[in-house]
Amino acid sequence: MEYGTRLEHAITELESCGDIEVERRPPDPDLTPERLELVAEADEYHADWATTDGRVSGEFCVRNIHGCLVNGDLPLTDEGLEPGERRVLRELKIFDEAPFGGAGSVTGLRVLPEGGVPEIWHYVSTRTMLHRLHLDYGTYLDTLLITKGATGWQYLFADVDLTEPKHADTAGNLTAMLDIFPGLFPGHDYEPLRTRLRERL
Questions:
Q1: DSSP β-bridge partners for residue 50
Q2: In whole angstroms, what is the distance from residue 11 CA to residue 154 CA?
Q3: How does pLDDT run across 101-127, given as a tens digit for each residue?
Q4: DSSP states along 111-178
Q5: Measuring CA to CA, which residue among 106, 138, 120 is closest to residue 38?
Q6: For position 42, what pLDDT does the model report?
Q7: Whether 154 contacts 58, CB under 8 Å
Q8: DSSP-derived 3-state class of residue 56
Q9: What is the DSSP secondary structure assignment for residue 76, as one 8-state letter?
Q10: Would you call 146 exposed, middle or buried from its count of C-beta atoms within 10 A (0-12, 13-18, 19+)?
Q11: How many CA atoms lie within 13 A of 75 on its CB side?
């Protein structure tokens, strides 16, 4: 099954839950799985959602990776980061973001000049935080489908201590997500993510 079809299925799973409110941006009744193959026919595919009780929320805006690598955006800058981190931030090709979440959260691909497997980095502008994620691009896309873009899911693949006060909201969102989602979406295996959360709490 191509990724565009799987992405559409993930949103349909959310929309089928009466306790989750979902908004596609932009809403497009003509957006079909065929137009989303490999997220290549559309420039981006964007949705944000929240449970009606406010316990869990998420957002993603997955971009056409070819367009990101060829065209890209203006380099990001953040003088609050260390010099080495500022260099990494400038080199990122952003392929996922949460533009309406308010935190300035983006994830990008860093292609190394010496070759090898590209790195995945996650940056949050409102907190001046940049973390390398210990996964590859394919695993990122697969995990996004399982987490539905739950806010902060990327930290399950970063070297972070989620007991720190600055991560309190993220830890709460992830804890609630991994409490709720296995019952809502039994076709997915959430135990590996639960293990990662326990390792960071």
A1: 21, 57
A2: 19
A3: 777 899 999 988 777 789 999 999 888
A4: --TT-SSPEEEEEEGGGTEEEEESS-HHHHHHHHHHHTTBTTGGGGGSS--TTSGGGHHHHHHHHHHH
A5: 138
A6: 55
A7: no
A8: coil
A9: P
A10: middle
A11: 11
Q: 88: part of which helix (H) or strand (E)?
A: helix 83-91
- Beta-carbon contacts of residue 192 (< 8 Å; ≥ 6 apart): none
Per-residue exposure over 11-39, b if at least 16 CB sit within 10 Å of its own CB, e if not: bebbeebeebebeeeeeeeebebeebeeb
Other beta carbons within 10 angstroms of residue 57's beta carbon come to 20
Kindly tell me if the per-residue pLDDT of 36 is higher than 50: no
The pLDDT of residue 117: 83
Q: What is the pLDDT of residues 56-89, one digit of tens each?
A: 999 999 987 777 777 767 788 999 999 999 999 9
* pLDDT range class, residue 160, cuts 50, 70, 90: very high
Distance of CA 133 to the CA centre of its chain: 11
Q: What is the mean pLDDT of residues 137-158?
A: 96
Structure tokens at 61: 């805006």
pLDDT of 72 reads 65
The pair of three-digit structure tokens given for residue 40, joined into one six-digit string: 């290549």
Euclidean distance between CA atoms 7 and 137, whole angstroms: 15
